[in-house]
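Q: Can I see a sequence and its folded structure?
A: Here is a first one.
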Amino acid sequence: MREARSPDVELLAATTSKLIRPFEAVVLLLQATNLVMSAVNDRYRPEVVWVVLVLGLAHFLLAVLVLYRRGPLTRGHAWTFTWIALIFVVQLALAHLLAPGDFAAYGNGVPMGNYALIPLTVFAFYPWGGFRSTAMRWVIEAALVVAISLHPLVIIGLTRHWDFTPAHLRSIAQYAIWAVVWFLTGKGIAWLCRIAVRVEKDAMARSYEVTLGDFHSHVEAAARRIDAGHDAREIGRELRETTYQRRRQLLLQEDNVGAVDIVKNAIRLHGDRLRLLSSPSIGALTVPRERAIVLEQGLADLLKNVVDHGGGAVEFEFRLDGDTMVFDLRDRGPGLTPAEFAAPASTMQRLRRRLMVLGGDLSPVPSPSGTGAALRLALPLRERR
């Protein structure tokens, strides 16, 4: 059986997973920059400079690809090990392409010194072992830092027949220091991620207490009333109303609210008393909070009118006319007379006044079937100037 993980670990894993892809893309982009600049700053044999430039272009294309697809670290161990091996192979191969007498970056014969150091940031950030074992993660990270720090020893050894000078050793020590700096940079990002997780968790806990803290008592009270013989359908409607209000509180906390969520919440309020004959296709449209509040309450009122007076069946359609949302609702009831719609104290007129303040409107439209009420709610997405 899989061991349950704490909320902190779950949230940290989820946050890291979302950040890994853009983080990998940035690393590949910086590696591409290192390759191109190496062709300018390091002295290669003239006939092989194109190899460095092609490698730079390949890394740039990989960075773009990772933004749209999954990167190596999230594709499994084989891809991860392939990327790590590539880091070592590319730097070792390019060292053999240098012109005689050129010692490249850091003065130790290692071209593009930061090429292998930059990935240490994402390696330090990456959740090796899925945050299941801290000891295993530290072992992997330490091994990577040591391997990359000592990589110049291998390069110099192979290119100079293992003949090291004091200058080489000082340069290798400098390279190792930078390896630790890049690694700690990644650890710093991971630390900021953990802070974000704690803030997110605390915000979620507060939001739960504010909006749902007393919901359990409503459920228990409903169960006791059912046991006492009260009407279960009436209690169910009351619970649905409570659930609707709690969802509404959560929904309307955002600065921009998904129009689909607004419509769904208004429909859920009425449960099985409402039957949709057609459903609106809205997509990923979002609505500013002030307008979302009016729209959500307005749709709930219009659908309540369908349930109470329109037979419970409704044709519900949506379209976007420029920057104006247009909702058409048609029921199968007795219809709505002009006098009933225009009554100053009616729900329709109260809703219309709220919509008009925001540049919208509520108006009756001819019903295609000639029966029932047909109403059109229009609301601009933003204030008109």
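Q: Show me another, different protein.
A: A second, unrelated one:
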Amino acid sequence: MTQVESTGLLKRFRNTPWKFQKTFLTPLKDLPHFVATILSTHESIQTGCVTVDQVVFDPKCLSAMLAKHSLSAQITRDFSITAHGRVEIAELLEAALSDSLEFIFVPTPKPFVIYADHDEYTTVYANTKSNLNSVVRPLLAQGFKTDEDYERRL
């Protein structure tokens, strides 16, 4: 894992005209399965970057994960960390989803991005319907719940 500077990543995310989105209720008691399902949708994902938008409560899980990887940092707005390889990516995404954070998750390559909030909603964004469906359909097939009436405004 490597800590990186976000260099305007949040601003670029908000300025991107995302055409498609679907919001899921974040299953805190089933995060490993939720994250594994997301990552299984695109075997080509090599890295994943989490950039913090807002820290609501002390991010204990993310802090513990950083310590495990001999990284120490103040987790504040615009803090970014990149995970390399599927195991690290899953660990990073699970830790971020476990904490009361608002953040974006950007995989590389980038067929989709995720915005998660402290209210336990995870929104998947994509610029094509097929890229969105490539993540949404497997999540629905695994029984994860959507909030059909929710549309995130950036």
